[in-house]
Amino acid sequence: MIDFNRRRMLLWAATAAALPGLCAVSPARAEDTVKIGLILPMTGGQASTGKQIDNAIKLYMQQKGDTVAGRKIEIILKDDAAVPDNTKRLAQELIVNDKVNFIAGFGVTPAALAAAPLATQAKIPEIVMAAGTSIITERSPYIVRTSFTLAQSSTIIGDWAAKNGIKKVATLTSDYAPGNDALNFFKQHFTAGGGEIVEEVKVPLANPDFAPFLQRMKDSKPDAMFVFVPAGQGGNFMKQYAERGLDKSGIKVIGPGDVMDDDLLNNMGDAALGVVTAHLYSAAHPSQMNKDFVAAYKKAFSNRPGFMAVSGYDGIHLIYEALKKTGGDTNGDKLVDAMKGMKWESPRGPISIDPETRDIVQNIYIRKLEKVDGELYNVEFETFEAVKDPGKTKK
Ligand code: PHB
């Protein structure tokens, strides 16, 4: 009786003897592989974020290949369902057992924060591709962000509202860190421009029912309501906004663009027409690079890419380019150094990594929701160039 492993070895030896050509192809050596632990919410309320980022990374690797600076790239995808305890456990397993060279993804702020001490301890880059609270990059010198901050868009829409005849605003924000950033930065800029906040409500992050809050919004008779809900929740919000007749009562929706995520727009219906938001990305961004990106993404996944997809696409690009610069060296300090100050053209427009904060510097566009060729799009009409995160604490 020979056991299973011995039988497999004998089989391999027999096959190798019969096919000498096969032996010339040595199996990829483990030390040649660069491993990226990708932690995303693939299930639960934030699953659309996970899907967009995972799709975009697949698309990028399909376009550019899976070898950089002579090293093969391996993605190890883990689903944390946006629960920070899961994120921490998964990051630990990826670092200790799989010996990953990067951790990446992070669909929500609490997940990005939970992983930060582990990146510091392991001295490996943590590439934040979704979460948007300003403090995140301050939590580890190994964090580099390719997504956005809520402060970037909320300050700009605050100024715009005050300058464009909006006097009274009611706010509705998701009750966790990025919602608080959105609210505080909007309020600062809108009130400095002479605006008044007439009602402030915070809604739970998990499974929010907007209906009771929308009645309060309506009763406070604002000119507009400022809304931040994370990616994936905008469709449900706009449905309840229309059901409560807020679109008919002349209360405009303004905010950062998360509520108008591209992959949800076509299900929102005409109630969303005219919504003005400030954001980093629209699928209608008129560059050739974006047209090609949208076409390739749609062909591969039968859906429109949103801002999370672009943040993932740029995140994997950053990793590829950093590896090229280090010549394939995976030393974490060298990789982070290589990323600092990097500049490139993204489907969203020109972007760079601030060498001091390791945060993204990008254009913020003001957009209006319009119908173009029968489909709903955020049409950009004003650009603020190379916006740094206004939310960094001054040292
Ligand atoms: C976050 O948790 O930081 C976050 C998630 C989704 C968004 C924006 C911010 O759309």
Automatic annotation (TrEMBL):
Signal peptide: 1-30
Single GO BP term: amino acid transport
Cross-referenced Pfam families: Peripla_BP_6 (PF13458)
Keywords: Amino-acid transport, Signal, Transport
Domain Leucine-binding protein: 33-370
Superkingdom of origin organism: Bacteria
InterPro entries given in the database record: BCAA_transport, Leu-bd, Peripla_BP_I, TAT_signal
Gene3D superfamilies on file: 3.40.50.2300
Family: Belongs to the leucine-binding protein family.
Identification of the protein by name: ABC transporter substrate-binding protein
Source organism (scientific name): Bradyrhizobium macuxiense
